Amino acid sequence: MSNNLSPALNPNSTLASDSPLLVDGAKLVIAVYPFTAIEPGDLSLVKGEEYTVVDDSQDHWWQVVNKLGEKGFIPSNYVKEKDALGLQNFEW
């Protein structure tokens, strides 16, 4: 059974609290949809903004860091890997 709760509210979630904010070779993602943080520990997404993935061990919720250094959980299906977007990221 899949648990769709934000890891911030999921007592069964295991998170690395000492994860670095930015590391070489980190996965970069772009928000393809806006998301408003509802629960404590979630992070709002701005469509088109870049985020660094800190923890993607959960299927549905990833921990990311925004350009201001704020860390929180986001729905993983609201972002795409930056490299995977290719030319789709640009409006012609």
List keywords for this structure.
SH3 type barrels, mainly beta, 1 helix, five-stranded antiparallel β-sheet, 92 residues, 4% helix, globular
Label the structural class.
mainly beta
Name of the CATH superfamily of one domain: SH3 Domains
- Gross morphology is globular
* CATH 2nd-level architecture of one domain: Roll
**Sequence of strands across the biggest β-sheet:** 4-3-2-1-5
Query: Which spans have pLDDT < 50 for at least 5 consecutive residues?
Result: 11-22
In DSSP terms (H or I, runs of 4 or more residues), the helix count works out at 1
Strand-residue fraction?
A: 25-35%
Largest sheet: 5 strands, antiparallel
Radius of gyration: 13 Å
The termini sit apart by: 43 Å
The third-level CATH topology of one domain is SH3 type barrels
Query: What is the β-strand count?
Result: 5
- The top level CATH class name of one domain: Mainly Beta
* Helix and strand pattern: EEEEEH
